[in-house]
Amino acid sequence: MVVRRTEPGKGGQLYSVETLSRSAVPLASVIATSQLRCRPRRAPDLEAESRALAELAGAFAASRQPRLQKLSEIALDLCRAHSAGITLVEASATEPVLRWRALAGKLAPHVGATLPRSFSPCGTTLDCDALQLMSRPVQHFPYIDAWPPAIEEALLIPFHFSGKALGTIWVVSHDDSRRFDAEDARLLMALGKFAAAACELPTGVPALDGTRGGAGKSPALPSATESNKERFMAILGHELRGRLQPAKNAAEALKRETLDTATRRSLAEIIDRQILGMTRLVDDLLDVARLRAGTLRLRRTPADVAEIIEHAVEAVQPLLAARNHTLVVSLPSPRVVLEADALWLSQALQNLLGNAAKYTNPNGAIRIGAQRENDELVITVSDNGLGIPPAELDTIFDLYAQAGQAGSERSAGGVGLGLYVTRLVVEGHGGTIRASSLGLGGGSEFVVRLPLLIR
User: Fold this and answer.
1) Nearest by Cα to 410 from 385, 378, 435
2) 100 near 111, Cβ under 8 Å?
3) In a domain, 207, yes or no
4) Looking at the structure, do residues 414 and 444 belong to the same domain, yes or no?
5) Does this model's pTM top 0.70?
6) What is the CATH classification number for the domain harbouring 371?
7) Quick one: 28 and 161 in the same domain?
8) Which residues span the domain enclosing 443?
């Protein structure tokens, strides 16, 4: 087994792990994760976190490498580390390797270096599938000395896509002046979600001149799907920035020394809400990718239909109340049971109800009902809202469809993933979903049909 080191302007240099690891101490001797619970935890710096995430929002409209580099720089800054990086799993002729794809701080000159998947701090983190804190990891992985400066502590977390380990995001200190704590662990775990999204989201928003990028290249005429995809990326960038603007404003206000405690608490809550909203958006994007790949497993068990609907209704109550809608719920009687992933199916119905609320003018009427028809469960969600143009009924469940309708009357903000996710969830349960409408102003109706567990 070998480790290949790649340096700018130089050829690869090989290090024999078998030779260098003879004097290594046991792995358990360098694992210090339990110390995170014992160390004093520094207070969150919400202003710095908000500012960093605002910068990250802009990076997500670019291609993958700038996203990863920005994430490394943010991890370095937020965790007050000496170096930070993102390591990705790569295939090789013999065995998988881990490559330092993005680096910030003192280790930045070593970007591109590779380590063995089976014998490295990052590989160990992937094997444990959990956050790891290592103290002087060189004791167990002697070849790390090949990349100066020496590493005093390393805090690493794994990130995944479609159930497959993609790599790790990590921060390190190079002397004992910096010890990581639980706040650093929280920040790094949050950034891990963005690292997975950075690897899997579509790359690049088209240049403002309409070209695909690159000097001297002729602009191609994009297909409808590509156009929608590009609009989707533009809307995504807008949404990310829009969610963070209130946080940035609150962070600026927190700088005033004259604020009382109640005002500071209120501003901190604004920042926390916006960060949570951005994290949920990234989670939604990852869920879409997993559902598309068929690797997000639906855990189907006997589930009560009434409970699934009630949970969906409870989740959208704040939106319904804010728009003063009337909601009528019709539950099946007697009790109906189907084989379903209750959490995901409730989320799908929540998406339908949320859409109905957004696309219905205030004081509107919305209905959700369920009934048994032979061996099927039929769930209907209807409203008296804006309606759907006939030309859009065949594509409304497609990915990027909302982006393609960005200028239509049905544009109500968001990135338009809800109906696409709903279709994937329903089809994952062996069911179907269809939409109907009398056209603009005529309201909408969505009908879900699912096979029943016969009892």
Assistant:
1) 385
2) yes
3) no
4) yes
5) no
6) 3.30.565.10
7) yes
8) 301-451
Strand 83-90 relative to strand 97-105, pairing: antiparallel
Spatial separation of the C-alpha atoms in residues 27 and 117, rounded to whole Å: 15
Closest by CA to 444, choosing from 434, 429, 431, is: 434
Rg (CA), the chain: 25
Q: What is the CATH number of the domain that holds 283?
A: 1.10.287.130
Which residues, in sequence order, are CB contacts of 270 under 8 Å at separation 6+?
246, 247, 250
Residues, the chain, total?
Answer: 455
Helix axes 342-358, 418-428, angle to 10 degrees: 150
Residue with tokens 């969505």: 446
Do 243 and 278 meet the contact criterion of CB atoms below 8 Å apart?
Answer: yes
Which parts of 323-398 fold into alpha helices (H)? 342-358
Beta-bridge mates of residue 159: 167
| Pair 425, 348: CB distance under 8 Å | yes
Which DSSP symbol is given to 106?
Answer: T
Co-location of 235 and 368 in the same domain: no
205 found inside a domain: no
Question: How many domains would you assign to the chain?
Answer: 3
Task: Kindly state whether residue 77 falls inside one of the protein's structural domains.
Answer: yes
Question: Which token pair is 399?
Answer: 């990915």
Report how far Cα 210 is from the mean position of its chain's Cα atoms.
28
Cα distance between residue 314 and residue 352, in whole Å: 13
C-alpha angle 129/134/135, rounded to 5°? 170
Q: Are residues 23 and 81 in the same domain?
A: yes
Which of 384, 393, 379, 371 shows the shortest CA–CA distance to 351? 379
3-state secondary structure of 299: coil
Rounded CA separation 286/99 (Å): 23
At 249 the three-state DSSP class reads: helix
Mean pLDDT by 10 residues, the chain (455 residues): 45 44 75 93 78 69 74 94 94 82 94 88 92 94 85 94 81 95 91 78 37 36 47 51 64 76 78 67 63 66 93 88 93 89 89 91 95 93 92 77 45 61 88 92 94 66
Question: Where residue 39 sits, what CATH number does that domain have?
Answer: 3.30.450.40
Q: Is 364 exposed, middle or buried (0-12, 13-18, 19+ CB in 10 A)?
A: buried
Do the Cβ atoms of 346 and 311 come closer than 8 Å?
yes
Do 256 and 355 lie in a common domain?
A: no
**228 and 153 inside one domain:** no
Do 385 and 273 fall into the same domain?
Answer: no
